[in-house]
Amino acid sequence: MRPEMSGQSGIRVAVAGFGRLASDVTRGLAAVGGMEIVGIARRQGDDDTIRVGETLVARYRDVGTMIRESRPDVLLEATLPEFAMEHSLAALASGVRPVVATSGVSDRDLEELQRACADRSLGGVVAPNLSVGAVVLMHLAAIAGRFFEHADIIEYHRDRKADAPSGTAVHTARLMQREREGSFTRVPSRTVTVPDVRGGEANGIGIHSIRLPGLVAHQEVIFGGTGQTLTLRHDAMSNDSYVPGAVIAIRHAMETTGLTVGLGTLLGLER
User: Fold this and answer.
1) Alpha-carbon distance values, 135 to 113, 131, 194 (Å)
2) Residue 157 annotated to the active site
């Protein structure tokens, strides 16, 4: 027997994944008016429930069962890129709107999700970063890219983050390149004594991934020009910074049809 919720009403949200970020965001959502957490899919652990605030929420071992039994309006997908598509498509097939907070979703997968949302006439959101501040940084970086030919992105995350570079860094580079309508210029080093010391590259933009204990989520975009540099930086001090963006994304998915990519689009910062 699954536990009953505490009589709340509003948008019914099921959560796939309950790692550090997802657990903090879920607890933040539970405290927001008009949101009801109806299920959490988490493979680890033996308990049938997970306490979220003052409420015991049903815990499921697979997303399909959770969708069938908890009957959510929205699936907040916060697992890993290799599972995000399977879970999102399963949600859409059941009439549930996906909000994907997982980084690393490929362009091919985005196209498939767009078709699935259109076929079902349902809304959906893919947001590599749910932090409003990080999204504003991406917007400003895209603007600055029109005026500087040289740029590097440095992203910093906790040591256990699974993917590199972050989805935010990749999306930032994509926005910068699109706004510039051409590639950036990267001058190669004549001599390299340590392999890969210059980091990766996307359309002439250097991308560097730092993984250390004690970090949460941080990103710098450094531009270089004749006799000057410009540095933009955002720091997320805790996972609470993602809750306002998650609320915006969930409400948008409920109110629209079709797939929206990037929180910046919802904020009117991206076209």
Assistant:
1) 22, 6, 33
2) yes
Q: From the CB of residue 13, how many other CB atoms can be counted at a distance below 10 Å? A: 26
For residues 206, 211, 217 and 219, what is the CA-based torsion angle, rounded to 10 degrees?
-20
Three-state secondary-structure class, residue 131: coil
Interval 153-200: pLDDT, tens? 999 999 988 889 988 898 899 889 999 988 899 999 999 999 999 999
Considering only 40-54, 213-227, 237-251, which range has the smallest mean pLDDT? 40-54
Domains of the chain: 11-126+240-266 (3.40.50.720), 132-237 (3.30.360.10)
- In 3D space, the residue among 109, 104, 77 whose CA is nearest the CA of residue 91 turns out to be 77
Annotated active-site residue in 87, 139, 150, 157: 157
Cα gap 138→185, rounded to integer Å: 19
- Least Cα distance to 88 among 61, 113, 69 occurs for 113
Residue from 87, 139, 150, 161 carrying the catalytic annotation: 161
Known catalytic membership, residue 150: no
Which backbone phi and psi does 26 adopt, to 5 degrees? -60, -45
Instruction: Name the strand (E) or helix (H) holding 49.
Output: strand 49-52
Residue 216: alpha-carbon gap to chain centroid: 14
Q: What is the pLDDT of residue 1?
A: 38
The tokens for 153 are 């992105």
Mean pLDDT throughout 27-48?
A: 90
